[in-house]
Amino acid sequence: MNSLPVERNLSVDEQMIPYKGHLQMKQYVKGKPCPWGIKAFLLCGESGMTYNILLYQGATTELDQTVQKKFGLGASVVLHLTQHLEKNRHYLYFDNFFATFNLFEQLQANQIYAIGTIRTNRFANPPLLTDKQLAKMGRGTAFEISTDMKNCNLCMVKWHDTRSVCLVSNYIGSGQLETIRRWDKKQKKYVNIERPEIVTAYNASMGGVDNIDQLISYYRTFIRSKKWTLRMIVHAFDLVVANCWLQYLNDADHYIIKKKRKDLLHFRMELAENLIKENQIITPKRRGRPRADIEENLDVTSIFKARKVDSSQPTNDVRKDRFDHFPGFDTKGHTSRCKNPGCKRKTHVFCTKCDVHLCLDGTSYLIGKEISVVILIGTSKNDFTLDLLNWNDLMNETNYKIVSFVK
Length: 407
What we know:
By secondary structure, this protein is an alpha+beta fold. Helix content is 28%, strand content 25%. Strands 1, 2, 3, 4, 5, 6, 7, 8 and 9 form a nine-stranded mixed sheet that branches. Strands 12-15-16 form a three-stranded antiparallel sheet, with no helix packed on it. The protein has a three-stranded antiparallel sheet with strand order 18-17-19. The longest helix has 27 residues, at 228-254. The radius of gyration is 31 Å and the shape is elongated. It starts with 8 loop residues before the first strand and ends with a strand. Residues 4-245 form the PiggyBac transposable element-derived protein domain. This is PiggyBac transposable element-derived protein 3-like.
């Protein structure tokens, strides 16, 4: 994932891989959609794109021991995940599990801008107003203090909404105040309150890990196995597929493609079809009369109610793999249009692997075109030789049998 273009706004948070079996490193994290499972730390972009991952293994977690002893677990995880980031380019967001004074000091030395919610006891209990004092002053009240150090310029903001929250940043403070609407239970109406810029930036960019969790949960791959290794493999596959779909959307935005964008479900289905069909021999359909038990359970009315749906075009990876593309001939009373782009001919010939009609029975359109046909030349099985000819060479042969064709 290091080869992906990294977004400007990044966040670090925990992710739970669902698992309830017997495992020493199994964790319980309250508030997560899947509270029981294997914990991992992720570095994600604002959209949910995952750039780095660290699996939590207790005392054997793959962290630098000297860094962990100096900064603690949470801060060392952030430094480990962000060690490959470019300087003076990214904005990092994390919650109070990771935030410490030493972490902000090190991030400023690494030229990484950061915002995080904090626990005040990790910052030597700074002289802030208490929650009761802020509550008396009303919703939207903010109190700000800053450090006066050469190597570490931090700004701490405590803001009261329904509850008080404390945030620290090494590049921004209260900033420009934004007016927002909130519901007041006592007055039973909406009221306008002010929100600092540091809170707005944190809320806008902190949900990257939650976004990737949401995408994975839509179409999670379930496997009936109690082995945690298989659960990890399946989760890694779902994570990579969600990442690929997000990159697909980024590419579509780059090339200004607004129509015919695939949603996550169709993207997964097309990916599965490519993995199944590409460079694989397709098992031929069984011929003959269906079994008696199938005929008894067959609903005849469903055949007539079935709606005709056009077959989807195969992807280029399957269409051009030159593997197992055999021609077939349908028994329909009418011909079907050739699915080759730009061709308007109609034919009975179709590709048995792609399940689309392709013209191969005429000469007016095919002569002079670059269409490769794999044939067996000869009159008997012993005389057959495999060759690759274009259509013009094929017309000069007298004894041939079509084996496969590629357009």
